[in-house]
Amino acid sequence: MSALGRVKRVGYGAMQLAGPGVFGPPADPDGAVAVLRRAVELGVDHIDTSDYYGPYVVNELIARALRPYPEDLVIVTKVGARRDDTGNWLPALSADELRSAVHDNLNRLGVDRLDVVNLRVMDDSPLEESFTALAALREEGLIAELGISNVTLDQLATAREIAPVACVQNHYNITERGDDPVVDETNRLGIAYVPFFPLGGFQPIQAEALHTVAARHGATDRQVALAWLLARSPNILLIPGTKTPAHLEQNVAVGDLALTPADLAELDAIAG
User: Fold this and answer.
1) What is the dihedral of CA 252, 259, 16, 103, to 10 degrees?
2) pTM for this structure?
3) Could you tell me the pLDDT band of residue 271, with boundaries at 50, 70 and 90?
4) Which residue ranges form the domains of the chain, and what is each CATH number?
5) d(Cα 151, Cα 219) in Å, to the nearest integer?
6) C-alpha gyration radius of the chain
7) Distance set, CA 175 to CA 146, 208, 242, 264, 268 (Å)
8) Per-position DSSP letters for 227-257, written without gaps between them
9) H or E stretch at 117
10) Taking the CA of residue 242 as centre, how many other CA atoms within 13 Å lie in the half-sphere pointing to its CB?
11) Theoretical Cys-Cys bridge with 194: which of 1, 169, 213, 268, CB 3.0 to 4.6 Å?
């Protein structure tokens, strides 16, 4: 079984721990460390990160906060991009760039092997060469499992011809449902689906149905949006991010929020 098949369904996305625009250090590094430690205290066993968050900042914070890591903690990182001096996101998909990125993640996280590495596909870049390079690093023992991010069904099929795929990380939430076919196909294949921007990203989701259902359960709109994702498909794993312990606790509590069929009918009617 994949490591992601054993984790709790609500994890933690560490991207927001970097500075504004996911660039530079946070204003409160000690606060970021406290959030990471609180996540583990709450039972979170799946953390999503990347060495290009910051860059370098988030992985260094994770190592500072959590090493030596709990045995059950699965850390998922991603490669395929880099940042320039002003914070722009640029592709880094050559074999040499990917090898360097894997070693950077290993060194900053302070581990001998990465649990899961996602290949972040930039724009329409072909993934054969890049995923083959990562598959070779997996064969070397530097990576336990591979995933892909920002991909189509055709790209998923191509990747699976090269090496096993443990997870797909794509843009998906209650109002952005264009990836429905990928959710369904990954569920059929037994592959974890991890939506990024599960709460809308830089434009938080707003919908009257969220308010209505949230009031019914004494919950927040965010909690309902996350609970809808858990109900959408059993292979969905959540990695909502936050900088505050209060929001972290609300996110983790979503695992206990049971939406009724009537709730789901109202929420399913939300149009993207």
Assistant:
1) 70
2) 0.97
3) low
4) 3-205+236-243 (3.20.20.100)
5) 33
6) 18
7) 28, 12, 20, 13, 9
8) HHHHHH-TTB-B----SSHHHHHHHHHGGG-
9) strand 114-120
10) 20
11) 169
